[in-house]
């Protein structure tokens, strides 16, 4: 009944209702006076009539029913293959080693494990053989749907027949109470050995949501090695220092936890584990499950031993303990590095350490590989070192290894996940390596680790990624041995590029979110790229117009090789073009989305996106640079190389010679890009060599300069090795390394960088046989031999170079001494250093003994072969050894160590560089890997194809560049023989003639002194070269000699001795390492016959066709040019067999000074270049070989 206020017959009610309705915005026409005609609107409410209410209820019911149906249908589809027995086992995705069962119907929540290992013999000692262990596991689960089937992985375990199932009231019900339950379930157990599963079928249906306990008793084997990937045992009885020490440990790769206990062995499955082990009173047991919470079965860590514990204090609540046998030399590195790494990573990732404790177990290196699980790390003692006992290189590698193990703890949940795509499986290791770089830069800032990463790590990997046999990162499913080497560093380089492009703060925030939340949430790692994309856009960072972060990364994941960026000038614009780098001929492409970083001496720094386009322009950047240098990819933050056109390269060269804008790492990167660009035929080889010479002249006692120079010489050696010009190259390399050696000897070695620079220089000096270093190294080695104590007097930083140099000139007594020291070495790092030096020996019988593992440990063979691989001129002996012994080696190592065989093939083939070598390799390939071969290992076949491609290219390089390199190197080697040495009170000319029989320095043998030999220079009143003004300081040495002889009759380039029995000055300076140079001087001196009147050699004897009015510079230079022209003519018929598989371009660079019309022209140009104050923009040579078939 309506109230009076709302009585429809009340006129006042009608009037008030009308006013209120109009006030609320209702359009009520004038004249409406009845209540039924007004749409009354009560404030704050909704009027529903009966019909509307019924319809609303029906709609809600239908929506609920539809939602329930869809949910049940989806769940049934997901569970169907696991509920029904016929479809119980799901086949693993391609690329997974074994089958997996992604259980959903029955997924255990907890395991209670009891283990009883039978370790002891009757006499109380640890058994050295395989032993059994018995165990029982209580699997606590709650079915997600009604089912009568329970399945577990059991691996190679033996399952007893007393399996039983009990009802459990709750998760917390004690096991004793569960066992007292009288209820019984009839079970039918079935073991599938092929699928490695135990299937339990219950007579009645298990209800979803109810708790149950399945008790399984089993027996396993504790093996005596770690190849079982379960439980293994190690007993030390040979090495006295660790005698009677032992340990038992687990090593569980993804899907290998089934070999330890019955479980659901799936990387997606996590549960709580409680472990109990029977042990003796003196045995220590370490679990990683005590405080870890939910973990995957393959993350279980168990360690039993009689090792000693060493607690390490930290600044957090984390319990850090190091376990080691008594023989461990030192844990100082762990004490120094691990707490700092824990603190920094916790701060950087804004996430606490994943567990509340961390146990680090140090084990002898010869018994196992490293292993890790959440909260437990097992490492080799060989990676531990101290700064006093280890070289700085070994110490830094040890720190890297420790940091990587600790950083991986944060990323452990990613290990082995079944992601939706194989394309991102490289990301986990790339993140670990990226965090390693960031961490070491923080805890060891004086190492410059991040700046050196491109030079030490990226550049070598880019060489492997430059060939057609390389593979893209996304090819994880069928990855090869080359892929394993490339993927980690290439992935890390991509992350470095994104970190630099999107700023460090954005990239750090993404890593924090990924590690803190997303890594535990998603099944695949695409979330990382999604997070990065969101953070970039939220911060308004410029992205390519049509590309997301994932699209950018996909271009780097799915393309093999890497881009070559070419910079060109077009008016005021800078043109950037994209090519695919390759040594045959880089090809234009638009495959990559590339962030190009540009830096200039005057213009602004910027990042330009080259987005799926062969080229782009930067308007006005040339004018903005105001004639100064322009660099792309500074500090190699991007994974690509850069080629500069002539004018831009001139600006860079000028800055290196006269400016201070570039540090050693920028110059090192430039040398690498330019030398590789020359070998790829995109930069003129003459220009690349000139750039290298400019760097040599400018270089100071900084390791970055010399590392790049030595790497460039290693590459050039590949072309001239086993040619008549190699000795000239050796002379010049000796001159260059002497400059570096003297610099480091005279400078204060006050930083890790300078120590590393001195070590690299010493090693290179020993390899090229720098006399002063060889004599010093032999002296150090002899002092060691005469030491009566076990203390090695050679500094750890000098041992690598001293050992190798000693082996180069070793006698049989020296070989026996080194083998004795090797066998008795107690320090793993020093033992390996001695083993690596064995590869430097030139005694074939000794090498045969070493390579056949007759005198070395099996564990050191890989290091020895790797040392051979690192030597660019190792020679043919390693390959001949492989060819003669391959059947034996293949049978011995194919099943146990294919990696060693791969290293052998890499090292043996890499030193080959001639057409004859190629034919021998083809014969070897056909015999052992041809279609008729019985055993063709795909990994080794891939190595063969890779090395064959490199050998083909080296033959092409020799045909294309031998003439250019020899014409550049020969005059420098001749000038290097006229050096004047400063001795005590004045400048004296001193020459020595040191002859080595079979390239050996005999111990204790005096060298013949030739101090009494007078050269032509000493005859000229012993005057010193005139002082040079500033404009002359950078002129070539040839010009300097010309000025000193300006008032004399033009003399030949080679001066002879005034003593009838004395050798010429050139011969005396270069005898020990340059026999070919001596032969080249013979025509000029008539078989070294002493000169006649006034002890002068006639010009006509050297250059019968020379004009008499030539300048002295021409007289000196022309014999070199003639010799080059006569000896460097390419024989194209030698590569006819390679013409089909490899395209050989016969476009040679112009030879400076060659030919009668321009023999001094190149020299004068070089002199003018050195004197000019501004860089020239004029193209002097046709340098760039890229065919620009792209329309602008």
Defining key terms:
disordered C terminus; globular; alpha+beta; 5-stranded mixed beta sheet; Neutral Protease, domain 2; 1192 residues; single chain; 6-stranded mixed beta sheet; Immunoglobulin-like
What this model shows, in words?
Residues 998-1031, 1084-1096, 1104-1117, 1158-1177 have a biased composition (Basic and acidic residues). Helix content is 41%, strand content 13%. Among the domains are: 100-306, tricorn interacting facor f3 domain (Immunoglobulin-like); 308-412, Neutral Protease, domain 2 (Orthogonal Bundle); 426-558, Neutral Protease, domain 2, CATH 1.10.390; 708-768; 875-982, no CATH class. Helix 5 crosses helix 6 (427-443) and helix 17 packs antiparallel against helix 18 (752-767). The protein is of the alpha+beta class and 1192 residues long.
